[in-house]
Amino acid sequence: MALDLEQIPLTPADFPYDITLPIDSVNYLIEFRYNDVYDFFTINFKDESDESIYASRIKYLGQVIHVVVAGLSQITSDIKAFSLNDLESGGSRDINVNAATLGDSVGLYVIP
To answer: How far is residue 3's CA from residue 20's CA, in Å, rounded to a whole number?
Structure first.
């Protein structure tokens, strides 16, 4: 069974990065930011009036949207950071999603 994945093509050189991304047939303005002090990435969803709806740290195999949020409740897809090698092998590792891994061994994917 093939898993339908859409990769969000990001590397640390792209940050800060803003994109309008269609998820479940709705366009969301999404900001990706890098915290260079603590070496991690964040994702921020914004509404049409440029107000932040929800922000979260991007963690390996963690759900980006892990709480019920007004304005995002219609999203049924998930956004996760992981390695395709882990997916293919059926295993997983504890990997930090940071400047050394994102876009190299770790990708960011929309999973319907």
So the answer is: 23
- Is residue 109 within 8 Å of 8, Cβ to Cβ? yes
The DSSP call for residue 14 is G
Q: With a threshold of 0.90, does the pTM exceed it?
A: no
E strands, the chain, are 6-8, 17-23, 26-35, 40-46, 52-57, 78-82, 107-111
Q: Quote the CA–CA distance of 3 and 61 in Å, as a whole number.
A: 16
Rounded to whole angstroms, the Cα distance separating 20 from 29 reads: 4
Element (H, E) at 84: helix 84-89
Q: Write the pLDDT tens digit of every residue in 97-106.
A: 999 999 888 9
From the centroid of its chain, how far is CA 106? 11
